[in-house]
Amino acid sequence: MSKVLVIHHDDSVRSKLEGMIRGQHHTVMGFRDLLAGVKEIARQRPDIVVVGQDLKKEEGTRLLKYLKQNEVKLPVVLIAMRGTSGHQAIAMKLGARGFVAYPVDEARLEAAISEALKAHQAAMAGPPPVTEEELRGNLSMMERQLNARMKCFAGRNQVYIQSMITGGAATRPRICLKCSLRPEYGLSKDVYYEFIRDVCCGDPMQCEAVRKFQAERESA
Q: Most exposed among 11, 20, 106, 161, judged by the fewest C-beta atoms under 10 Å?
């Protein structure tokens, strides 16, 4: 059970969203005004925010910009009202973890909340440890082999050797891939060796972003 803060200026829509979320046994706080909702974020420390996005107020993207500017790490799911499907790309670039078209049923909304929480937790946990294969292997050769074996269209020629400067020292080099598709669905753009080997180069349909992309293409 999570603490969910809902922001939507339309009372009837907000009430429906609150009822569906409460039906999944979450604790729900609802606000009509974006400013009041933002103030409550600091006071109540919710686990996730569900916010409306329409053509007039654009409360979802305004909230995301505020959170980003103030470095607040909080998962956000946008409820896209009529005519806002084109806002998805910018919302995801701003850090949204979900973008769900309204009207939405309880199961789909709960799935979006669950996926957003999971993605946020994974991002906060940071990258997995460097594997034994990377420690003992030739990274340049592994990079070439993985790029050659790549099956996912979004990962073609994207495998590289990552090493960052933190605290004045370079991190241990490792295999990484920056995916252009995953951020569109609120997922981390960075994936690492075992995921690249098993999913990107093995079975791309294990990737949540690829599954969603494929489903959107089939329903179009």
A: 11
What tens digit of pLDDT does each residue of 168-184 get? 566 789 999 999 999 88
Q: Outline where DSSP puts E strands in the chain.
A: 3-7, 27-31, 48-53, 76-80, 98-101, 159-162, 165-166, 169-170, 174-178, 190-192
CA distance 150 to 196: 8
Of 47, 49, 179, 213, the closest CA to residue 124 belongs to 47
Side chain identity at residue 28, one-letter code: V
Specify the pLDDT at position 206: 97
Q: Residue for token digits 């995953």?
A: 182
Say if residues 67 and 97 touch (Cβ distance below 8 Å).
Answer: no
